[in-house]
Amino acid sequence: MERVKTGIPGMDEILGGGVPKRNVVLLSGGPGTGKTIFGQQFLYHGLQNGEPGVLVALEEHPAQIKINMSQFGWDVRPYEEEGKFAIVDAFTGGIGEYAKRERYVVRDPSDVAMLVDVLREAVRDLKAERVVIDSVTSLYLTRPVVARSTVMQLKRVLSGLGCTSILVSQVSVTERGFGGPGVEHAADGIIRLDLDEFNGQLYRSLIVWKMRGTAHSMRRHPFDITDKGIVVYPDKVLRIQRGIMEIA
Fold first, then answer.
1. Which is the CATH superfamily of the domain at 3-193?
2. pTM for this predicted structure
3. How far apart are CA 210 and CA 47, in angstroms?
4. Using one digit for the tens of pLDDT, what is the confidence trace for 228-248?
5. Crossing angle of helices 35-48/62-70, nearest 10°?
């Protein structure tokens, strides 16, 4: 099986070598868990290894995204100039001077069909192999009934174009789901990031709920966000039992 390396230290060990190619992975978690960083790190690793990538920006200005990425040492400008990286602007709606210079702009971010058309164009132009949508929840937040069909629509397009994709999915702090009714059945894989408070301290951890096409760790692993991105500890397990938390 052909696998795609995430580029996140420790993550590929948990996934048995990487994400199976063409899989559409739902990256679910609450605020502050590191979902956006995870997706950007995945894209940048691909760029470093000659795999073009597309980032769909639904919740943050493209200019700010590039600034945030550069803080981890991920400068995407050279790859943009080479035609190997692009941001699909589904945030500004084409408003502002910056948007006028952008090549891939979704004029109506609430129109999923329009977004899919622009995304398809970007992927074909760049021959993109990796795609991150941040966040897919924005597309159905006010209409949860279409959550599954929206993810399925994106999956058909992205898999059909040969992309390995991450769909960032937001959940509330206390929510146990994955960011929309039925989305867990539509995705090929689910990685859940969590931030738990225990005795006045926050702990980061992740667990792979499912990943089609590969065996994977069934345990909850701690991770850190460093100045170079996310680092996962595949040899450690975070447990909370009877009011006691331990990392072993």
1. P-loop containing nucleotide triphosphate hydrolases (3.40.50.300)
2. 0.94
3. 26
4. 999 999 999 998 776 677 787
5. 80
